[in-house]
Specification:
- The protein is of the alpha/beta class and 337 residues long.
- The chain is 15% helix and 29% strand.
- The protein is built from three helices and 38 strands.
- Strand 20 and strand 21 form a beta hairpin.
- The longest helix has 24 residues.
- The termini are far apart.
Length: 337
Amino acid sequence: MVGGRIEGDAKATVNTFAKIEEGKPGAISFLSNEKYTHFIYDTQSSVVLVDESVKLEQGVKTTLIRVKNAYEAVARLLQLYDSMKPKKKGIDPLAFIAPTATLGADCYVGAFAYIGDGAKIGNGCQIYPHAVVGENVTIGDDCILYPNAVVYHDCRIGSHVTLHAGSVIGADGFGFAPTADGYDKIPQIGIVVIEDNVEIGANTCVDRSTMGCTYVRKGVKLDNLVQIAHNTDIGQNTVMSAQVGVAGSTKIGEWCMFGGQVGIAGHITVGNRVNLGAQSGVPSSVEDNQTLIGTPPMETRPYFRSQAIFRRLPDMYKELEDLKKQVEELKRMKDEG
């Protein structure tokens, strides 16, 4: 399953997962961060997945399975474990399904879930209690909508999509025109399109477009509390940590990685494979293949050197003031002499 090489008891068996520092007999753990290496010498886990490159300073009691990437290996095992759990099926009598809505085979719809007129839901979907699927929404196969997830009218969801609790897909974009009397609402008549294999975290919002579509492309993963504004286009396999905010009409490239609380200005383009450190603020377009941090963002080495200087600014300012006084004193002495 993981393509590993065994060191230790080849007949060791496991029946659960555990963190390496909380290991117990019968558990499988993994080691991918060197900060946790010291736990491997005393862990009670029966098996530990480790990278092939890990060098241990002493013997261990556990059985090791050496793999190319321990984090990827345990992820594969967790996926296998999760796939073995039985799926919920059946329609709860307290659910509401409009007469014109259609459901595929083997779906689950929980109590008080709502599925509106003209909605089309594929095979094997799970709609948990209090989730809302609006009118004319299309949802592909094997999707999960957890409690209180909401998909507004006309939006399109691909297959193998997970919407966690409280996520909102297709609420109005933030469009208002200032007038002498206040702000006139600009109707948001577009939709949201979410492609296959996307996961949307709890309380994350993806706004519908003013016109056309807001796109979340194939394989995108959004953490909790992320805001995607109207008319944005999030490229394939991009991932965003919690509290990222992307303003309207911005195009994000493929395979990007954004740390927590990154803010992206509107009407700009972020290239492919751009990594942004936590709390970076991006006011203008960014080219492909860059790793940046800060506001405005800069390359990591100059950024951390600048931060080191920033911490010294009070002392440097005092030194500058002292030098100014010395220069003034020398000028005075010269004038008097």
